[in-house]
Amino acid sequence: MTQDVKEIFGGGRGPGSAHPPAPAALAAKVRTLAPSMTRSMQRVAEAVADDPAGCAALTVTGLAELTGTSEATVVRTARLLGYPGYRDLRLALAGLAAQQQSGRAPAITTDIAVDDPIADVVAKLAYDEQQTLADTAAGLDTVQLGAAVTALAAARRTDVYGVGASGLVAQDLTQKLLRIGLMAHAHSDPHLAVTNAVQLRAGDVAIAITHSGSTGDVIEPLRAAFERGATTVAVTGRPDGPVTQYADHVLTTSTARESELRPAAMSSRTGQLLVVDCLFVGVAQRTYESAAPALSASYEALAHRHGAPRGRP
Fold first, then answer.
1. CB burial class (10 A; 0-12, 13-18, 19+) of residue 108?
2. Looking at residues 245-273, what average pLDDT do you find?
3. Is the pTM above the cut of 0.85?
């Protein structure tokens, strides 16, 4: 065994050594991180996700031989997935295998075909949406989420940046925050985003929403806010993307599975909306004494537009 493998095989501190992912989160972690891995690490990750029972029975040498890689690559993959060492990954694989054998793991759906009946389209889309939500929830770092909630609850002002489908999510978050009495603005115009970002300071919050993690029109204002001392948050499907360089807190969404008839923007938006809802509910909990009256006031103000009697429903 090589020296670098010995140094990290025994459970030394690593990216996930404090809180290794639960077995149910393993497949989600593979889907999220695989695009950023080297090809050899991808082979290891795909092997453990495709056959957890078989891989759980293998030593580090055996898995390296199965995937045509090295022991060091196997261990590095385990650590990137959030486990201190390969032994911890094997335990998670054994747990995942037990879940699959009990029938709790869903079968992987097929892509939507041009000639699929509409009933099959509904079923496949519903499955993909459920999987996206489950993967996002499994991979969401609740420590980072809690820190972002704390910053938002105390913020003087919050700016949210997003373009395209992510811009719709940015609008959704700001509308929610406004309804509980917080100052929030969504920016999809890159020029306005930057000119507003340079006005931020300590005590303000800037949130960038970008599935790819590399959208320049979102990264630029986040960087400006970061440099001026605002607390910054990135909501992204690529935890190693450029946007995270300027993020104090990173909230990772599930990596979208794109097909010809299902653009990545569809499933990525689903994961982003879950994160936005988690942020909003967390902030509403922290600010309940002021949030509850603000929500009541917004219900009252809009009731007549929905044909409802005035007063909270």
1. exposed
2. 79
3. no
